[in-house]
Specification:
Layout lengths: L1 H14 L14 H16 L23 H13 L4 H27 L2 H13 L1 H6 L5 H16 L4 H17 L4 H19 L4 H24 L4 H5 L8 H13 L7 H4 L2 H14 L4 H7 L18 H7 L5 H13 L2 H4 L14 H16 L6 H26 L6 H12 L4 E4 L3 H11 L17 E3 L2 E4 L10 E5 L11 E5 L6 E6 L28 H8 L1 E2 L4
Parallel strand pairs: 1-3, 1-4
Antiparallel strand pairs: 2-3, 4-6, 5-6, 5-7
Helix pairs in contact: 1-5, 2-3, 2-22, 4-5, 4-7, 5-19, 7-8, 8-9, 8-10, 9-10, 9-17, 16-19, 17-19, 21-22
Protein backbone atom coordinates (compact mmCIF):
# COMPACT_ATOMS: atom_id res chain seq x y z
CA UNK A 1 0.00 0.00 0.00
CA UNK A 2 2.85 2.38 0.89
CA UNK A 3 4.53 1.88 -2.50
CA UNK A 4 1.22 2.22 -4.33
CA UNK A 5 0.66 5.62 -2.70
CA UNK A 6 4.22 6.60 -3.64
CA UNK A 7 3.50 5.55 -7.23
CA UNK A 8 0.37 7.73 -7.24
CA UNK A 9 2.41 10.69 -6.02
CA UNK A 10 5.21 10.28 -8.57
CA UNK A 11 3.27 9.25 -11.69
CA UNK A 12 1.68 12.68 -12.40
CA UNK A 13 5.17 14.22 -12.27
CA UNK A 14 6.12 12.01 -15.21
CA UNK A 15 2.87 12.46 -17.13
CA UNK A 16 2.90 16.27 -17.06
CA UNK A 17 6.15 16.25 -19.02
CA UNK A 18 4.32 14.86 -22.05
CA UNK A 19 1.28 17.16 -21.91
CA UNK A 20 1.12 19.92 -24.57
CA UNK A 21 4.78 19.31 -25.31
CA UNK A 22 4.47 21.01 -28.71
CA UNK A 23 2.57 24.03 -27.34
CA UNK A 24 4.32 24.98 -24.09
CA UNK A 25 6.59 26.87 -24.59
CA UNK A 26 4.77 28.08 -27.70
CA UNK A 27 7.73 28.30 -30.08
CA UNK A 28 11.37 27.36 -30.62
CA UNK A 29 13.86 30.09 -29.73
CA UNK A 30 17.01 30.66 -31.75
CA UNK A 31 19.22 28.40 -29.64
CA UNK A 32 16.67 25.59 -29.85
CA UNK A 33 16.18 26.03 -33.58
CA UNK A 34 19.93 25.86 -34.07
CA UNK A 35 19.99 22.56 -32.15
CA UNK A 36 17.21 20.86 -34.13
CA UNK A 37 18.38 22.13 -37.51
CA UNK A 38 21.93 20.97 -36.82
CA UNK A 39 20.46 17.62 -35.73
CA UNK A 40 18.60 17.33 -39.04
CA UNK A 41 21.72 18.27 -40.94
CA UNK A 42 23.77 15.60 -39.14
CA UNK A 43 21.02 13.06 -39.79
CA UNK A 44 21.07 13.68 -43.56
CA UNK A 45 24.54 14.98 -44.37
CA UNK A 46 26.88 14.29 -41.44
CA UNK A 47 27.74 17.98 -40.96
CA UNK A 48 26.26 20.94 -39.12
CA UNK A 49 23.97 23.36 -40.96
CA UNK A 50 26.87 25.34 -42.39
CA UNK A 51 29.03 22.41 -43.47
CA UNK A 52 31.39 21.76 -40.53
CA UNK A 53 32.12 18.06 -40.09
CA UNK A 54 32.36 16.07 -36.88
CA UNK A 55 34.67 16.06 -34.87
CA UNK A 56 35.91 19.52 -36.01
CA UNK A 57 32.41 20.84 -35.25
CA UNK A 58 33.04 20.07 -31.55
CA UNK A 59 35.50 22.95 -31.56
CA UNK A 60 34.63 24.99 -34.63
CA UNK A 61 30.91 25.57 -34.92
CA UNK A 62 29.71 28.45 -37.09
CA UNK A 63 26.23 28.77 -35.63
CA UNK A 64 25.58 31.48 -33.07
CA UNK A 65 25.09 29.23 -30.03
CA UNK A 66 28.36 27.39 -30.57
CA UNK A 67 28.06 24.22 -28.49
CA UNK A 68 25.16 22.39 -30.14
CA UNK A 69 27.22 19.50 -31.51
CA UNK A 70 26.72 16.86 -28.78
CA UNK A 71 23.06 17.72 -28.22
CA UNK A 72 22.37 17.74 -31.96
CA UNK A 73 24.07 14.36 -32.45
CA UNK A 74 21.78 12.94 -29.78
CA UNK A 75 18.71 14.51 -31.40
CA UNK A 76 19.60 13.48 -34.96
CA UNK A 77 18.06 9.92 -34.94
CA UNK A 78 14.74 11.40 -33.78
CA UNK A 79 14.88 13.95 -36.60
CA UNK A 80 15.64 11.28 -39.21
CA UNK A 81 13.30 8.48 -38.12
CA UNK A 82 10.28 10.30 -36.66
CA UNK A 83 7.92 13.04 -37.94
CA UNK A 84 9.28 16.58 -38.01
CA UNK A 85 7.36 18.59 -35.44
CA UNK A 86 7.89 20.38 -32.13
CA UNK A 87 6.61 17.43 -30.07
CA UNK A 88 9.22 15.07 -31.51
CA UNK A 89 11.90 17.74 -31.24
CA UNK A 90 11.29 18.09 -27.49
CA UNK A 91 10.67 14.41 -26.71
CA UNK A 92 14.40 13.58 -26.22
CA UNK A 93 14.64 16.39 -23.66
CA UNK A 94 11.90 14.72 -21.59
CA UNK A 95 13.89 11.48 -21.67
CA UNK A 96 17.08 13.34 -20.71
CA UNK A 97 15.28 15.03 -17.83
CA UNK A 98 13.79 11.81 -16.45
CA UNK A 99 17.15 10.03 -16.67
CA UNK A 100 18.77 12.99 -14.90
CA UNK A 101 16.24 12.81 -12.07
CA UNK A 102 16.81 9.07 -11.70
CA UNK A 103 20.62 9.33 -11.66
CA UNK A 104 20.75 12.21 -9.16
CA UNK A 105 18.34 10.27 -6.92
CA UNK A 106 20.56 7.18 -7.07
CA UNK A 107 23.56 9.32 -6.17
CA UNK A 108 21.74 10.86 -3.18
CA UNK A 109 20.81 7.40 -1.92
CA UNK A 110 24.39 6.16 -2.34
CA UNK A 111 25.68 9.15 -0.42
CA UNK A 112 23.22 9.13 2.45
CA UNK A 113 21.88 5.54 2.58
CA UNK A 114 18.59 7.24 3.51
CA UNK A 115 15.69 5.89 1.45
CA UNK A 116 13.20 8.48 2.71
CA UNK A 117 15.54 11.35 1.85
CA UNK A 118 16.15 9.92 -1.64
CA UNK A 119 12.40 9.56 -2.29
CA UNK A 120 11.67 13.10 -1.10
CA UNK A 121 14.49 14.31 -3.38
CA UNK A 122 12.98 12.34 -6.29
CA UNK A 123 9.52 13.90 -5.74
CA UNK A 124 10.98 17.40 -5.45
CA UNK A 125 12.99 16.93 -8.65
CA UNK A 126 9.90 15.75 -10.54
CA UNK A 127 7.77 18.72 -9.52
CA UNK A 128 10.42 21.45 -9.31
CA UNK A 129 9.55 24.36 -11.64
CA UNK A 130 13.04 24.60 -13.11
CA UNK A 131 13.12 20.82 -13.73
CA UNK A 132 9.80 20.92 -15.61
CA UNK A 133 11.15 23.80 -17.70
CA UNK A 134 14.38 21.88 -18.39
CA UNK A 135 12.34 18.89 -19.59
CA UNK A 136 11.08 21.00 -22.52
CA UNK A 137 14.18 23.06 -23.21
CA UNK A 138 16.12 22.17 -26.35
CA UNK A 139 19.33 23.59 -24.92
CA UNK A 140 22.64 22.08 -23.84
CA UNK A 141 22.31 22.66 -20.07
CA UNK A 142 19.94 19.69 -19.41
CA UNK A 143 22.31 17.39 -21.32
CA UNK A 144 25.31 18.69 -19.38
CA UNK A 145 23.47 18.08 -16.10
CA UNK A 146 22.77 14.48 -17.15
CA UNK A 147 26.43 13.89 -18.06
CA UNK A 148 27.59 15.36 -14.73
CA UNK A 149 25.27 13.00 -12.84
CA UNK A 150 26.60 10.06 -14.88
CA UNK A 151 30.17 11.05 -14.07
CA UNK A 152 29.47 11.30 -10.32
CA UNK A 153 27.60 7.98 -10.21
CA UNK A 154 30.31 6.10 -12.06
CA UNK A 155 33.22 7.69 -10.19
CA UNK A 156 31.51 6.79 -6.89
CA UNK A 157 32.74 3.19 -7.42
CA UNK A 158 36.26 4.50 -6.63
CA UNK A 159 38.08 2.08 -8.97
CA UNK A 160 40.55 2.67 -11.80
CA UNK A 161 37.89 1.88 -14.44
CA UNK A 162 35.39 4.11 -12.66
CA UNK A 163 37.95 6.94 -12.63
CA UNK A 164 38.55 6.54 -16.37
CA UNK A 165 34.84 6.43 -17.31
CA UNK A 166 33.90 9.13 -14.80
CA UNK A 167 36.49 11.46 -16.33
CA UNK A 168 35.20 10.71 -19.83
CA UNK A 169 31.64 11.65 -18.92
CA UNK A 170 32.81 14.82 -17.16
CA UNK A 171 34.76 15.64 -20.34
CA UNK A 172 31.56 15.19 -22.33
CA UNK A 173 29.77 17.52 -19.91
CA UNK A 174 32.58 20.02 -20.53
CA UNK A 175 31.98 19.74 -24.28
CA UNK A 176 28.19 19.77 -24.07
CA UNK A 177 27.64 23.33 -22.92
CA UNK A 178 29.70 26.50 -22.93
CA UNK A 179 28.09 27.66 -19.68
CA UNK A 180 29.19 24.59 -17.69
CA UNK A 181 32.81 24.59 -18.85
CA UNK A 182 34.06 26.55 -15.79
CA UNK A 183 32.09 24.28 -13.44
CA UNK A 184 33.42 21.06 -14.99
CA UNK A 185 37.03 22.30 -14.91
CA UNK A 186 36.86 23.06 -11.18
CA UNK A 187 34.89 19.87 -10.54
CA UNK A 188 37.54 17.87 -12.37
CA UNK A 189 40.22 19.25 -10.05
CA UNK A 190 38.48 18.59 -6.74
CA UNK A 191 36.27 15.56 -7.44
CA UNK A 192 38.86 12.89 -6.43
CA UNK A 193 39.54 14.82 -3.20
CA UNK A 194 35.79 15.08 -2.48
CA UNK A 195 35.35 11.36 -3.14
CA UNK A 196 38.22 10.49 -0.81
CA UNK A 197 36.80 12.74 1.91
CA UNK A 198 33.27 11.36 1.50
CA UNK A 199 34.23 7.68 1.39
CA UNK A 200 37.05 8.17 3.93
CA UNK A 201 39.46 6.42 1.58
CA UNK A 202 41.55 8.48 -0.83
CA UNK A 203 43.16 6.31 -3.55
CA UNK A 204 46.02 8.16 -5.16
CA UNK A 205 46.09 5.79 -8.18
CA UNK A 206 42.38 6.39 -8.86
CA UNK A 207 42.83 10.15 -8.50
CA UNK A 208 45.81 10.20 -10.90
CA UNK A 209 43.89 8.26 -13.58
CA UNK A 210 40.94 10.64 -13.26
CA UNK A 211 43.10 13.78 -13.39
CA UNK A 212 45.15 12.50 -16.35
CA UNK A 213 42.15 11.54 -18.48
CA UNK A 214 40.17 14.65 -17.66
CA UNK A 215 43.15 17.04 -17.83
CA UNK A 216 44.53 15.76 -21.13
CA UNK A 217 41.13 16.05 -22.77
CA UNK A 218 40.53 19.60 -21.56
CA UNK A 219 44.09 20.62 -22.45
CA UNK A 220 43.62 19.17 -25.95
CA UNK A 221 40.38 21.08 -26.39
CA UNK A 222 41.97 24.35 -25.29
CA UNK A 223 44.96 23.78 -27.58
CA UNK A 224 42.80 23.20 -30.65
CA UNK A 225 40.42 25.99 -29.63
CA UNK A 226 43.33 28.44 -29.84
CA UNK A 227 44.94 26.99 -32.96
CA UNK A 228 41.90 26.36 -35.19
CA UNK A 229 40.78 29.62 -36.85
CA UNK A 230 37.21 30.64 -36.08
CA UNK A 231 36.78 28.21 -33.17
CA UNK A 232 33.79 28.58 -30.88
CA UNK A 233 36.03 29.45 -27.94
CA UNK A 234 37.88 32.18 -29.83
CA UNK A 235 34.54 33.75 -30.82
CA UNK A 236 32.99 33.55 -27.35
CA UNK A 237 35.92 34.19 -25.01
CA UNK A 238 35.01 37.90 -24.87
CA UNK A 239 32.00 36.75 -22.80
CA UNK A 240 34.37 35.84 -19.94
CA UNK A 241 34.13 38.42 -17.19
CA UNK A 242 37.92 38.71 -16.88
CA UNK A 243 37.93 40.27 -20.33
CA UNK A 244 35.97 43.23 -18.93
CA UNK A 245 38.83 44.39 -16.67
CA UNK A 246 39.13 47.61 -18.66
CA UNK A 247 35.39 48.26 -18.18
CA UNK A 248 35.80 47.74 -14.45
CA UNK A 249 38.63 50.28 -14.56
CA UNK A 250 36.30 52.79 -16.21
CA UNK A 251 33.71 52.17 -13.47
CA UNK A 252 36.32 52.82 -10.78
CA UNK A 253 37.52 55.99 -12.51
CA UNK A 254 33.95 57.28 -12.57
CA UNK A 255 33.43 56.39 -8.91
CA UNK A 256 36.58 58.27 -7.91
CA UNK A 257 35.61 61.31 -9.94
CA UNK A 258 32.19 61.42 -8.32
CA UNK A 259 33.52 61.07 -4.74
CA UNK A 260 34.77 63.68 -2.30
CA UNK A 261 38.56 63.57 -2.30
CA UNK A 262 40.04 61.55 0.56
CA UNK A 263 43.21 59.48 1.20
CA UNK A 264 41.28 56.19 1.43
CA UNK A 265 39.80 56.05 -2.09
CA UNK A 266 42.49 53.70 -3.37
CA UNK A 267 41.56 51.21 -0.59
CA UNK A 268 37.81 51.10 -1.17
CA UNK A 269 37.61 52.07 -4.85
CA UNK A 270 39.83 49.74 -6.86
CA UNK A 271 39.51 47.05 -9.53
CA UNK A 272 39.85 43.97 -7.27
CA UNK A 273 37.18 45.32 -4.89
CA UNK A 274 34.77 46.09 -7.74
CA UNK A 275 35.46 42.73 -9.40
CA UNK A 276 34.73 40.94 -6.11
CA UNK A 277 31.54 42.94 -5.65
CA UNK A 278 30.30 41.94 -9.09
CA UNK A 279 30.99 38.26 -8.44
CA UNK A 280 29.25 38.31 -5.06
CA UNK A 281 26.30 40.18 -6.55
CA UNK A 282 25.86 37.49 -9.20
CA UNK A 283 26.30 34.63 -6.73
CA UNK A 284 23.82 35.89 -4.16
CA UNK A 285 21.26 36.48 -6.89
CA UNK A 286 20.87 32.69 -6.94
CA UNK A 287 19.43 33.02 -3.44
CA UNK A 288 17.35 36.04 -4.40
CA UNK A 289 13.64 35.67 -3.53
CA UNK A 290 12.86 37.33 -6.88
CA UNK A 291 14.77 34.61 -8.75
CA UNK A 292 13.76 31.63 -6.62
CA UNK A 293 10.22 32.51 -5.62
CA UNK A 294 8.62 35.22 -7.74
CA UNK A 295 9.95 35.91 -11.24
CA UNK A 296 12.74 33.53 -12.26
CA UNK A 297 15.73 34.67 -14.30
CA UNK A 298 16.43 38.39 -14.56
CA UNK A 299 17.11 37.89 -18.27
CA UNK A 300 14.09 38.62 -20.44
CA UNK A 301 14.83 35.50 -22.49
CA UNK A 302 14.16 33.13 -19.58
CA UNK A 303 12.06 35.28 -17.23
CA UNK A 304 8.94 33.58 -15.88
CA UNK A 305 7.43 36.86 -14.58
CA UNK A 306 4.74 35.31 -12.37
CA UNK A 307 6.64 32.43 -10.76
CA UNK A 308 10.13 31.65 -9.54
CA UNK A 309 12.43 28.66 -10.08
CA UNK A 310 11.34 27.19 -6.71
CA UNK A 311 8.42 27.18 -4.26
CA UNK A 312 7.79 29.44 -1.27
CA UNK A 313 8.62 26.89 1.50
CA UNK A 314 11.88 25.84 -0.21
CA UNK A 315 14.04 28.48 1.46
CA UNK A 316 12.78 27.44 4.91
CA UNK A 317 13.40 23.75 4.27
CA UNK A 318 16.81 24.39 2.65
CA UNK A 319 17.90 26.25 5.82
CA UNK A 320 16.57 23.37 7.94
CA UNK A 321 18.46 20.90 5.74
CA UNK A 322 21.83 22.38 6.60
CA UNK A 323 21.92 20.03 9.58
CA UNK A 324 21.95 16.84 7.50
CA UNK A 325 24.80 14.32 7.73
CA UNK A 326 28.21 15.11 6.26
CA UNK A 327 28.09 13.03 3.00
CA UNK A 328 24.84 14.71 1.93
CA UNK A 329 25.89 18.19 3.00
CA UNK A 330 29.22 17.86 1.21
CA UNK A 331 27.53 17.16 -2.15
CA UNK A 332 24.98 19.93 -1.64
CA UNK A 333 27.76 22.34 -0.64
CA UNK A 334 29.81 21.33 -3.69
CA UNK A 335 26.96 21.93 -6.11
CA UNK A 336 25.67 25.11 -4.49
CA UNK A 337 29.15 26.64 -4.18
CA UNK A 338 30.42 25.71 -7.63
CA UNK A 339 27.12 25.57 -9.55
CA UNK A 340 26.88 29.32 -10.28
CA UNK A 341 30.49 29.63 -11.47
CA UNK A 342 29.44 29.49 -15.13
CA UNK A 343 27.41 32.65 -14.55
CA UNK A 344 29.94 34.30 -12.24
CA UNK A 345 32.68 34.35 -14.87
CA UNK A 346 30.29 35.27 -17.68
CA UNK A 347 29.09 38.74 -18.63
CA UNK A 348 25.46 37.59 -18.66
CA UNK A 349 22.84 38.82 -16.23
CA UNK A 350 22.78 37.34 -12.69
CA UNK A 351 21.22 34.00 -11.75
CA UNK A 352 21.00 32.41 -15.20
CA UNK A 353 19.02 29.20 -14.75
CA UNK A 354 20.96 27.37 -17.45
CA UNK A 355 24.52 28.48 -16.73
CA UNK A 356 23.95 27.78 -13.03
CA UNK A 357 22.25 24.40 -13.64
CA UNK A 358 24.38 22.37 -11.14
CA UNK A 359 23.29 24.76 -8.35
CA UNK A 360 19.72 23.51 -8.62
CA UNK A 361 20.16 19.80 -7.64
CA UNK A 362 22.29 20.99 -4.73
CA UNK A 363 19.47 23.25 -3.55
CA UNK A 364 16.95 20.40 -3.98
CA UNK A 365 19.14 18.16 -1.82
CA UNK A 366 19.11 20.74 0.99
CA UNK A 367 15.33 21.12 0.66
CA UNK A 368 14.83 17.33 0.69
CA UNK A 369 16.95 17.04 3.84
CA UNK A 370 14.93 19.79 5.52
CA UNK A 371 11.62 18.11 4.65
CA UNK A 372 12.95 14.75 5.86
CA UNK A 373 13.86 16.28 9.23
CA UNK A 374 10.61 18.22 9.45
CA UNK A 375 8.47 15.15 8.76
CA UNK A 376 10.25 12.95 11.30
CA UNK A 377 6.99 13.59 13.16
CA UNK A 378 4.72 11.58 10.87
CA UNK A 379 1.71 13.79 11.53
CA UNK A 380 3.47 16.61 9.65
CA UNK A 381 3.96 14.59 6.46
CA UNK A 382 0.38 15.08 5.13
CA UNK A 383 0.71 18.82 5.78
CA UNK A 384 3.86 19.01 3.62
CA UNK A 385 2.36 16.83 0.86
CA UNK A 386 -0.85 18.88 0.67
CA UNK A 387 1.10 22.16 0.79
CA UNK A 388 3.41 21.17 -2.07
CA UNK A 389 0.46 19.73 -4.02
CA UNK A 390 -1.28 23.12 -3.93
CA UNK A 391 1.93 24.94 -4.87
CA UNK A 392 2.62 22.51 -7.72
CA UNK A 393 -0.90 22.92 -9.10
CA UNK A 394 -0.48 26.68 -8.94
CA UNK A 395 2.77 26.44 -10.94
CA UNK A 396 1.23 24.06 -13.48
CA UNK A 397 -1.70 26.42 -13.97
CA UNK A 398 0.76 29.25 -14.59
CA UNK A 399 2.99 27.15 -16.84
CA UNK A 400 0.27 25.63 -19.03
CA UNK A 401 -2.24 28.49 -19.14
CA UNK A 402 -0.38 31.77 -18.55
CA UNK A 403 3.17 31.13 -19.69
CA UNK A 404 2.35 30.43 -23.38
CA UNK A 405 0.91 33.96 -23.58
CA UNK A 406 3.15 35.92 -21.19
CA UNK A 407 6.31 34.31 -22.63
CA UNK A 408 5.13 34.11 -26.23
CA UNK A 409 8.05 36.10 -27.58
CA UNK A 410 10.70 34.68 -25.25
CA UNK A 411 9.55 31.44 -26.86
CA UNK A 412 9.72 33.07 -30.32
CA UNK A 413 6.10 32.30 -31.09
CA UNK A 414 6.06 35.23 -33.53
CA UNK A 415 8.69 33.53 -35.71
CA UNK A 416 6.75 30.24 -35.63
CA UNK A 417 3.62 32.10 -36.78
CA UNK A 418 5.62 33.96 -39.45
CA UNK A 419 7.04 30.68 -40.75
CA UNK A 420 3.56 29.16 -41.00
CA UNK A 421 2.24 32.25 -42.78
CA UNK A 422 5.08 32.09 -45.33
CA UNK A 423 4.49 28.38 -45.90
CA UNK A 424 0.74 28.86 -46.43
CA UNK A 425 1.26 31.80 -48.84
CA UNK A 426 1.27 30.60 -52.44
CA UNK A 427 2.87 33.58 -54.23
CA UNK A 428 6.27 35.25 -54.10
CA UNK A 429 7.12 36.69 -50.65
CA UNK A 430 9.95 38.97 -49.59
CA UNK A 431 10.89 39.06 -45.89
CA UNK A 432 13.01 41.80 -44.31
CA UNK A 433 14.31 40.63 -40.93
CA UNK A 434 17.03 41.58 -38.45
CA UNK A 435 18.24 37.94 -38.36
CA UNK A 436 17.49 36.36 -41.74
CA UNK A 437 19.17 33.03 -40.95
CA UNK A 438 16.83 32.45 -38.03
CA UNK A 439 13.78 33.12 -40.21
CA UNK A 440 15.14 30.74 -42.84
CA UNK A 441 15.61 28.00 -40.23
CA UNK A 442 12.09 28.45 -38.90
CA UNK A 443 10.62 28.20 -42.41
CA UNK A 444 12.70 25.16 -43.30
CA UNK A 445 11.80 23.36 -40.09
CA UNK A 446 8.07 24.02 -40.08
CA UNK A 447 7.78 23.24 -43.79
CA UNK A 448 9.30 19.82 -42.96
CA UNK A 449 11.89 20.38 -45.64
CA UNK A 450 14.35 17.62 -46.44
CA UNK A 451 16.99 20.39 -46.34
CA UNK A 452 17.73 20.44 -50.06
CA UNK A 453 21.38 20.89 -51.02
CA UNK A 454 24.25 19.82 -48.80
CA UNK A 455 25.08 22.51 -46.18
CA UNK A 456 27.96 24.86 -46.90
CA UNK A 457 29.55 27.92 -45.37
CA UNK A 458 27.27 30.88 -46.07
CA UNK A 459 26.78 34.40 -44.83
CA UNK A 460 24.91 34.56 -41.52
CA UNK A 461 23.22 37.78 -42.64
CA UNK A 462 21.81 36.47 -45.95
CA UNK A 463 20.18 37.15 -48.32
CA UNK A 464 18.54 33.76 -48.85
CA UNK A 465 16.20 32.39 -51.48
CA UNK A 466 14.12 29.44 -50.34
CA UNK A 467 11.64 28.27 -52.96
CA UNK A 468 9.42 31.37 -53.53
CA UNK A 469 10.49 33.04 -50.24
CA UNK A 470 13.22 35.69 -50.32
CA UNK A 471 14.76 36.66 -46.97
CA UNK A 472 17.08 39.62 -46.50
CA UNK A 473 18.44 41.92 -43.82
CA UNK A 474 18.30 45.05 -45.99
CA UNK A 475 15.28 46.73 -47.50
CA UNK A 476 15.68 46.61 -51.33
CA UNK A 477 15.87 49.89 -53.23
CA UNK A 478 13.10 48.72 -55.52
CA UNK A 479 10.31 47.22 -53.42
CA UNK A 480 8.74 43.99 -54.74
CA UNK A 481 5.26 43.97 -56.21
CA UNK A 482 4.30 40.76 -54.38
CA UNK A 483 3.77 40.21 -50.67
CA UNK A 484 6.26 41.99 -48.42
CA UNK A 485 6.79 41.07 -44.74
CA UNK A 486 8.83 43.47 -42.60
CA UNK A 487 9.94 43.02 -39.01
CA UNK A 488 8.74 45.79 -36.71
CA UNK A 489 11.38 48.48 -36.26
CA UNK A 490 12.81 48.14 -39.77
CA UNK A 491 11.98 51.04 -42.10
CA UNK A 492 10.81 49.37 -45.30
CA UNK A 493 7.28 50.37 -46.24
CA UNK A 494 5.74 50.42 -49.74
CA UNK A 495 3.83 53.56 -50.74
CA UNK A 496 0.51 51.68 -51.12
CA UNK A 497 -1.19 48.34 -50.59
CA UNK A 498 -3.18 46.64 -47.84
CA UNK A 499 -1.49 46.06 -44.47
CA UNK A 500 -1.91 43.20 -42.01
CA UNK A 501 0.10 42.38 -38.89
CA UNK A 502 1.34 39.53 -36.70
CA UNK A 503 0.99 40.76 -33.13
CA UNK A 504 2.69 40.14 -29.82
CA UNK A 505 0.10 38.06 -27.97
CA UNK A 506 0.86 39.63 -24.59
CA UNK A 507 0.33 43.32 -25.34
CA UNK A 508 -0.89 43.25 -28.97
CA UNK A 509 2.15 45.18 -30.17
CA UNK A 510 3.18 44.57 -33.79
CA UNK A 511 5.89 42.00 -34.52
CA UNK A 512 5.66 41.69 -38.31
CA UNK A 513 3.99 43.94 -40.88
CA UNK A 514 2.50 42.29 -43.97
CA UNK A 515 1.96 44.34 -47.14
CA UNK A 516 0.03 43.28 -50.25
CA UNK A 517 -1.22 40.07 -48.65
CA UNK A 518 -2.88 37.55 -50.97
CA UNK A 519 -3.58 34.82 -48.41
CA UNK A 520 -5.51 36.23 -45.45
CA UNK A 521 -7.14 39.43 -46.74
CA UNK A 522 -10.32 37.63 -47.72
CA UNK A 523 -10.70 36.08 -44.24
CA UNK A 524 -12.79 37.64 -41.49
CA UNK A 525 -9.94 39.27 -39.54
CA UNK A 526 -10.09 41.23 -36.30
CA UNK A 527 -7.88 44.06 -35.01
CA UNK A 528 -6.67 42.20 -31.91
CA UNK A 529 -6.80 38.89 -30.09
CA UNK A 530 -9.55 38.44 -27.51
CA UNK A 531 -9.22 34.79 -26.47
CA UNK A 532 -6.45 32.20 -26.31
CA UNK A 533 -6.97 28.44 -26.67
CA UNK A 534 -4.48 25.57 -26.57
CA UNK A 535 -5.58 24.53 -30.05
CA UNK A 536 -4.27 27.87 -31.34
CA UNK A 537 -0.70 26.84 -30.56
CA UNK A 538 -0.57 24.14 -33.22
CA UNK A 539 -0.64 26.39 -36.31
CA UNK A 540 0.94 23.74 -38.53
CA UNK A 541 -2.25 21.65 -38.61
CA UNK A 542 -4.65 24.57 -39.17
CA UNK A 543 -6.34 25.26 -42.46
CA UNK A 544 -5.36 28.55 -44.09
CA UNK A 545 -8.62 30.21 -43.12
CA UNK A 546 -8.37 29.00 -39.50
CA UNK A 547 -4.79 30.18 -39.31
CA UNK A 548 -5.60 33.62 -40.68
CA UNK A 549 -8.55 34.09 -38.33
CA UNK A 550 -6.52 33.13 -35.27
CA UNK A 551 -3.09 34.62 -35.99
CA UNK A 552 -3.27 37.42 -38.57
CA UNK A 553 -4.80 40.77 -37.65
CA UNK A 554 -5.93 43.88 -39.47
CA UNK A 555 -3.81 46.93 -38.83
CA UNK A 556 -5.35 49.79 -36.89
CA UNK A 557 -3.44 53.05 -36.80
CA UNK A 558 -4.17 54.42 -33.33
Amino acid sequence: MKYFLLFLVLLPGVIIRFIWLDQVPPGLNHDEMDAVMIARSYAYFGTDTLGEKFPISLIKNQVETGDDTLLSLLLSPFQRLLPVNVYIARLPMVIINLLTILLWTILVYRLTANKKLALVFLALFLYSPWSIIFSRSLTQAPLALLLISLSLNIFWKNTALAAFLGAIFLDLAFLAYYGTKPFTIIMGLILPIWLGFTRKKFKISVAIIFWLVFGLFVAGYIYFAFTIPGSTFSRRRQEIRLSTWSQIGATIDTARRTSISNPFSFIFLNKPAEFTRLLLQKYWNYWSPDYLLFSGDPSSNQRLTFHGAAYLPDLFFSALGLGMGMPGISLAALLITLGPVGTLVNNSLPANMYRGAPFLPGLLLLIAAGITKFTSHKKLLPVVIVGYLILSLNFLHFFFYQYPVTAAETGFLGERILANYLIKTSGEVTVIAAQPLQVLQQVMYFSQSTLGDKPRLISLSGPYNYDRIHISQICPQQLPTGTLVVQFGINCEPPSGNKLVIQDQKDTGTLWKIYNDETCSSSDLSYWRRFHYHSDYKPEIMSTDQFCNRWINKFKNI
